[in-house]
């Protein structure tokens, strides 16, 4: 048996990469300093795995921003708009410009699109493809990292996004061709990379091919067979691992096992039932990698269950053909549970149920030892401790709340229905709200400056008392309200200065959640989040946002939105308990949010936004499983939103998703207004709503907040004209793509002033057209 890791967290044990990237972007450090931080993180990761006893240690799993963007730069798939800087600027600056946009030296270049990595909360940069596109080896990152590992005494296993998966992740930027047609153009670059790696002594190569666990058409299946046959023909001695994850192989099983590769990796956390069928199908020439330690959640592995899988595989294949691995990359796991020192935040009872990336590495090594003929004392001791922790969690009194269970049981269909249909609600809302044509608003958060973050940190450490902290936040909130009034925004927000993360903030106030000090995971680029842990039944002990919403509304004669995170997003962006169906946990959260919505309405808040950016992300990867998920996800949103009167306007927000396939379900959510990310796609995402004739109101984003570049008024007007061409003007709102928490105030002020001016120009033009 051999052990291997598919990928390791790259942000560093203390988010060193995040801090270094942001310092580099602001000119505080040089490229050399940033590269040194990256080198230190990768070498520490290799050393940790080597000392733990992992047999095959990955390299090229590190990235300064995103692994898909790394591959785009590697194969020279640089969009034409960046060509002007591609050969003038250092490679690192071209790379970051593609991710974040470029606005200096007289140039103004938009960033590449960004979307979710399958059904995770990680975002990748979407490759852009043209008809007959040519590729060439532009970056040697893969080779350099392998050489670096070799110099560190590790004959590492390079991790490469598979050619087919890379193409399928991308987007055709012109009509009249299929991106799969580019496979033959791209193959020579992959061959060149593999030759370099072989020449430098690589033995194993891991190709990540998660699309093998998704629905594939016949053309994709044929292309898979062709590409891997060509690769094998060129490299008869290299050992290829094809890694599938996030789903079972299902109808792609025969395709996957017929590929001319050496090791097939399967995800037995997401799809444990596939093991028997794989063992019955696998040819004698193929070894099997068992993904049995959960790479996406933080619960301790159940050794008894995993050993049953391993022993079943050993009985069929023998030890030489069995590999033990995590289900997927540990990119989605926090770094190290040992860094959780504060028992007031994470109690010892709950901590004993958890494992972060470092602990999961040890679990994999211990499972190998325990599956051998003569496990050592330490491994047997680990087994005893594991059994004790698993049993303790099953019988813990912390987990269950009968009142919450009873409330879920008595919930009816009426609890998921508004009093009146949208066309009636719209008239009532307009009578009350009196909003203009093309009303402007923002998505919720405003820049969280260094000062705001320092106040929060000092408050949590006890260095700032509650009264002083409250005063400082009120001053910042009032300043933000006054500024919005000054520039003429129609529907205001309070800025959310009291909040850390849009899920963490609510989880801190909901029963059934627990938190960590350092459980950070990468969301995109330098953006890291610290997901809450849902360990038990969820309910709302007290109001969560009413205090700040009331305060904001008291400062202005305009309407101020109440800002909430929706139940599906709270579920998706948390580490969720695995001892009951996710749908049940989601309904518990929905009822808690419903209580908050009702209390906001009682407090006089007439516009309430319930953000659901993760509802598309939660969609199962196989279409056959969609309807069951969408049924309970839409129901959960409607439960949270449907307790209010017709005059209360419910907004929701979604971002970085493709909506075409679920547009009916989005309509079924029945939000009065939906705001969506649209600027990076130049309003292309709006086509789904137009084709469907979406009946409710829509705010297509006109300002990409994930890029530091500031769009002009003229640019926003053009985007709004594109929107108005497909959506009636009376349905359109004007807003940024997403919350503004991560932006600087100077960028935000310029962009929002331009946004308001764009809205007024559109309103004026529309009025002139009418008269």
Poorly predicted runs are: none
Helix content: 40-55%
How would you state the average pLDDT, rounded? 94
Write down how many β-strands occur, each being a DSSP E stretch of 2 or more residues: 25
Biggest sheet strand line-up: 1-14-13-12-11-10-8-2
| Quaternary assembly | single chain
Structural category: alpha/beta
Descriptive labels:
single chain; 771 residues; alpha/beta; eight-stranded parallel sheet; five-stranded parallel sheet; 28 helices; 43% helix; zinc; 5-methyltetrahydropteroyltriglutamate--homocysteine methyltransferase; repeat; UROD/MetE-like_sf
Your description of this structure?
The chain has 28 helices and 25 strands. It is of the alpha/beta class. Strands 1-14-13-12-11-10-8-2 form an 8-stranded parallel β-sheet. A 5-stranded parallel β-sheet has the order 21-22-23-24-25. A two-stranded antiparallel sheet has the order 3-4. Helix 16 crosses helix 23 and helix 23 packs parallel to helix 24. The radius of gyration is 26 Å and the shape is globular. The termini are far apart. The model has no long low-confidence stretch (mean pLDDT 94).
């Amino acid at each position: 048996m051999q052990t291997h890791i598919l990928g390791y967290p790259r942000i560093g044990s203390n988010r060193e990469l995040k801090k270094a990237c942001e310092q580099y972007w602001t000119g505080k450090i040089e490229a050399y300093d940033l590269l040194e931080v990256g080198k230190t993180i990768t070498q520490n990761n290799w050393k940790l795995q080597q000392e733990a006893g992992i047999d095959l240690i990955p390299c090229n799993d590190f990235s300064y921003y995103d692994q898909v963007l790394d591959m785009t730069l590697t194969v020279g798939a640089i969009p034409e708009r960046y060509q002007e800087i591609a050969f003038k600027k250092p490679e690192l600056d071209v790379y970051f410009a593609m991710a974040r946009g470029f606005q200096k030296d007289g140039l103004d270049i938009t960033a590449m699109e960004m979307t979710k990595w399958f059904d995770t909360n990680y975002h990748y940069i979407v490759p852009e493809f043209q008809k007959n596109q040519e590729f060439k080896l532009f970056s040697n990152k893969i080779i350099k990292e392998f050489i670096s590992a070799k110099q560190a005494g590790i004959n590492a296993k390079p991790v490469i996004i598979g050619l087919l998966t890379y193409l399928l992740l991308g987007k055709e930027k012109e009509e009249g061709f299929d991106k799969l047609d580019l496979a033959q153009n791209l193959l020579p670059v992959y061959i060149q990379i593999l030759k370099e790696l072989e020449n430098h002594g690589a033995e194993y190569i891991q190709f990540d091919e998660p699309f093998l666990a998704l629905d594939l058409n016949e053309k994709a299946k044929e292309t898979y067979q062709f590409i891997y046959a060509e690769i094998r023909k060129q490299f008869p001695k290299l050992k290829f691992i094809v890694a599938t994850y996030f789903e079972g192989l299902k109808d792609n099983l025969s395709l996957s096992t017929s590929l001319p590769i050496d090791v097939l990796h399967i995800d037995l956390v997401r799809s444990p039932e596939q093991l028997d069928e794989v063992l019955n199908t696998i040819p004698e020439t193929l070894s099997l990698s068992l993904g049995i330690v959960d790479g996406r959640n933080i619960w301790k592995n159940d050794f008894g269950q995993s050993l049953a899988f391993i022993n079943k595989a050993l009985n069929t294949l023998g030890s030489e053909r069995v590999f033990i691995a995590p289900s997927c990359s540990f990119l989605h796991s926090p770094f190290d549970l040992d860094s959780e020192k504060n028992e007031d935040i994470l109690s010892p009872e709950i901590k004993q149920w958890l494992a972060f990336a470092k602990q999961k590495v040890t679990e994999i090594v211990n499972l190998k030892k325990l599956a051998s003929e003569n496990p050592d004392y330490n491994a047997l001791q680990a087994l005893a401790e594991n059994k004790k922790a698993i049993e303790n969690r099953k019988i813990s009194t912390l987990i269950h709340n009968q009142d919450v269970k009873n409330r879920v049981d008595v919930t009816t269909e009426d609890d998921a229905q508004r009093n009146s249909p949208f066309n009636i609600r719209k008239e009532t809302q307009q009578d009350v709200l009196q909003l203009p044509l093309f009303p402007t608003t923002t998505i919720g958060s405003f820049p969280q400056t260094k000062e705001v973050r320092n106040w929060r940190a000092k408050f949590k450490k006890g260095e700032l008392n509650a009264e002083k902290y409250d005063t400082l936040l009120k001053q910042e909130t009032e300043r933000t309200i006054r500024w919005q009034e000054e520039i003429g925004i129609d529907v205001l927000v309070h800025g959310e200065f009291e909040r850390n993360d849009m899920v963490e903030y609510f989880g801190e106030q909901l029963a059934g959640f627990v938190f960590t000090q350092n459980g950070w995971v990468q969301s995109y680029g330098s953006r890291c989040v610290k997901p809450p842990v849902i360990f038990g039944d969820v309910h709302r002990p007290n109001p969560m946002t009413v205090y700040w919403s009331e305060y904001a509304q008291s400062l202005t004669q305009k309407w101020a939105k109440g800002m909430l995170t929706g139940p599906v997003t709270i579920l998706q962006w948390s580490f969720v308990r695995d001892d009951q169906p996710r749908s049940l946990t989601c309904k518990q959260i929905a009822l808690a949010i419903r209580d908050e919505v009702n209390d906001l309405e009682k407090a006089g808040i007439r516009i309430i936004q319930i953000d659901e950016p993760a509802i598309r992300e939660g969609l199962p990867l196989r279409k056959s499983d969609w309807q069951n998920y969408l049924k309970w996800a839409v129901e959960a949103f409607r439960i949270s939103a449907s307790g209010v009167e017709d005059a209360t306007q419910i907004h929701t927000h979604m971002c970085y998703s493709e909506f075409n396939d679920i547009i009916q379900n989005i309509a079924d959510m029945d939000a009065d207004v939906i705001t969506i990310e649209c600027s990076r796609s130049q309003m292309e995402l709006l086509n789904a709503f137009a084709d469907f004739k979406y009946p409710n109101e829509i705010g297509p984003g006109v300002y990409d907040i994930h890029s530091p570049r500031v769009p002009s008024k003229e640019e926003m007007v053009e985007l709004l004209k594109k929107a108005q061409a497909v959506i009636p003007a009376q349905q359109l709102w004007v807003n940024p793509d997403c919350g503004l928490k991560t932006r600087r105030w100077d960028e935000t002020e310029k962009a929002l002033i331009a946004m308001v001016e764009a809205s007024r120009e559109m309103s004026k033009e529309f009025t002139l057209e009418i008269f």
